[in-house]
Amino acid sequence: MGSGTWVDVVRRWFQRRSGSVNTLGNGNRHVGVTDFEAKSSVTPSRQEEKKELTILEDFNISGLKVIKVPKRINFPASSSMDPHKKNPLETEFFTEYGEASRYQVQEVIGKGSYGVVGSAVDTHTGERVAIKKINDVFEHVSDATRILREIKLLRLLRHPDIVEIKHIMLPPSRREFKDIYVVFELMESDLHQVIKANDDLTPEHYQFFLYQLLRGLKYIHTANVFHRDLKPKNILANADCKLKICDFGLARVSFNDAPSAIFWTDYVATRWYRAPELCGSFFSKYTPAIDIWSIGCIFAEMLTGKPLFPGKNVVHQLDLMTDLLGTPPAESIARIRNEKARRYLSSMRKKQHVSFSQKFPNADPLALRLLERMVAFDPKDRPSAEEALADPYFSGLSNVDREPSTQPISKLEFEFERRKLTKDDVRELIYREILEYHPQMLQEYLRGGDQTSFMYPRRKLLLQDFLDDWGLARITVYTHLHQIHLLK
């Protein structure tokens, strides 16, 4: 078989995979993001597929009081505008994007180093959305890569407890665009603001909040993804008590069952929610337990209204942890790879574990028992998200049928993490992600065959994956690869 024919076979297989439907662990079908398009262009069959994605939310939360959800920033558009004239806010918000007419921007609801977030109405669906305008995306390759990672993960992780990207606007130029407009479902506030504004949350609120966070985390972890930056500001909230996890820019995908290694100088998440095994810039192994610790810290903050471990620096952080949890046993200290951290903990005066009922005198004992498990100093002592959901604390609320798992993310999706990318490389990869929200253009793009080499960065791996799908033996892969001269 000629090399050109094999490459065509691989390309056709990749095209089929790019529009395929993933299967959830509970048997439901998980619709690909290509199905997130304007209602007017969704066929009935696609609408049926979208219904199958829905997880039955049969919670009886009628007794839960609506919570206060203060907005972070509010810059309303002028109320005296002529309705027939262009909204000045829209003129400022959108540049030369052709799809801008689809959205009526109402107000700016957030600002940051990345740009601005505006609330808007989607005129195609009548739905209120949040549009995140990211300015000068490619000024720094590291920032652009973080944005690529986030939009890719949010496309692949579709779940009721994870914020949803509904659309990404098509840039005017494939090779020269600088700004990105990402359209999210609109959420009213974040958990940081909710905790500050509500001093009358009930035990039922705490239970329902934690349940949603763990259910979302179970799904994320079964995809072999670690969030790594869970904190109240990265949990979006609505007045009806609905929470959603957001901001996956620091997340990482693990491609095997072994714990992953990483240089922690790369880890810049907020210190207060960082697991003890990460307190220090050192080369270490990490597991999903780092996210469980963060969720435990968030839960404790819900109970008291204050951060659990507000360390001023790494040493102070460790001091606060050991003040509550006690000095860790020698076997736990021995597993810490950082020599300075080991020496510090070994020389620390002996501290006794503080009773959680003393620290949190008004909390439900079952809640405290679960909290104590989640903030265990040694990561091996923390429960998985799935184990935490099965805890007696969630009796009457937990239901495995509405707590789906998913398949691990394919390493092909994150091959770019292993390569040194230029700005043009990242721009092309982000453009490819944007096309997932423009199915017709995606098919034309794939048929065009002019993808740059990094779109298929490791042909050996791609062909292996293709042949494995058909059940062919591994040795056959390498035989064909040698024959068609694809091995590098």
**Nearest-angstrom radius of gyration?**
24 Å
Mean pLDDT: 78
Low-confidence stretches: 1-53, 74-86, 263-267, 452-488
Strand tally: 15
Largest sheet: 6 strands, antiparallel
- Could you tell me the strand content as a percent range? 5-15%
Strand order of the largest sheet: 3-4-5-6-8-7
State the separation between the terminal residues, measured CA to CA: 19 Å
Please report the number of helical segments.
17
Helical fraction equals: 25-40%
Shape: globular
Q: Any overview of this molecule?
A:
- Residues 103-394 form the Protein kinase domain.
- Pfam families: Pkinase (PF00069).
- Helix content is 37%, strand content 12%.
- With 488 residues, it is α+β, with helices and mostly antiparallel strands.
- The strands form 5 sheets. Strands 3-4-5-6-8-7 form a 6-stranded antiparallel β-sheet. Strands 9-11-12 form a 3-stranded antiparallel β-sheet.
- The longest helix has 20 residues, at 203-222.
Provide keyphrases for this structure.
ATP binding; MAP kinase activity; Kinase-like_dom_sf; 488 residues; 17 helices; 6-stranded antiparallel β-sheet; 3-stranded antiparallel β-sheet; disordered C terminus; serine/threonine-protein kinase; disordered N terminus; alpha+beta
